[in-house]
Amino acid sequence: MPWWPFKSSSSLPNAPSSLDFSQTNDPREDKVPTDWTTSLNRTDWSHYTDPRNLIPVILLTSTCIGSYAFYRSYLKRIPQAALIQQKFWRKRSLFGTVTRVGDGDNFHLFHTPGGRLAGWGWLPWRKVPDKGKKLKDRTIHVRLAGVDAPELAHFGRPSQPYGQEAVDWLSKYILHRRVRAYIYKRDQYDRAVATVYVRKWLLRRDVGLQMLKKGLATVYEAKTGAEFGALERKYRTAERWAKLRSRGMWGGKRRQFESPRDFKTRMEHEHSN
Q1: Which of 36, 37, 232, 265 sits a CA distance of 20 to 30 A from 201?
Q2: pLDDT band at 270, cuts 50/70/90?
Q3: pTM for the predicted model, two decimal places
């Protein structure tokens, strides 16, 4: 019995006597260099044009593009009047919460597109700020279209009669409430001129029209730039109604009455002198 427990390779059946490397097959030897055009022409494009693959891709792409366009037009928040797109004027309305009343005929609106359906008011990250610092440069300054309220004291000028009453009424009527503003244009003070509506119970009220009926504003009179939408006749009727009933600023003597437009003209003339 041999002392080595393993047999040599020569004693193994069917074992080669030596390793022959000349018979090895290198897959790299079978590759032939081809240019990019030839490789592209050899590509099987039927996989990409198959309707079963093509239709889902088209639908997904169209859905993404459409969703982004819908977001930009209806769900993207507009922080200032200067950032309202030109195509929105006279075609769109803005929904939001009134955060501050600045004068008898203008206020600041925090735009909340989509309202409660979009999460405003109940989602933690969609709350209307309640502090001045958080609201800075984040509200749209809105000017009520078609009406002119008595002036408050500012820039060293005295207050006009019923100026404070107009501000107090407007604050009570719309402050911290949700309103919808139908925007017409941007004025020289970067304000969005708009007809504004607020819900009172189940009814929608035109804020400017209500001010005219209360005698706390007059129909806006200007040679150019007056905006009414399609409501000028209704506004003038409301003003005549307030005059006949001596409402608000119409309650004094007619000879002593001075409209907001006349008051501003007189103040500008006195200041220039």
Answers
A1: 232
A2: confident
A3: 0.78
